[in-house]
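Bit of a strange request maybe. I'm writing a small parser for structure token strings and I need a real example to test against, not something I typed by hand. Could someone generate the tokens for this chain?
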Amino acid sequence: MTPTARWAAAQRRRRQVINQVIIDRALRDPRRHEEAEPQAAAK
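Reply from user aminoacidic:
Good idea to test on real output. This should exercise your parser:
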């Protein structure tokens, strides 16, 4: 593995971890649950 390929792989892993953290945080956001409940009651 060349140094450039190793660096590129590390960047991909880093982006993947960051994106997963963002998704997890968004799913657990309390504001999201407050907004979701009234819509569910209206249906």
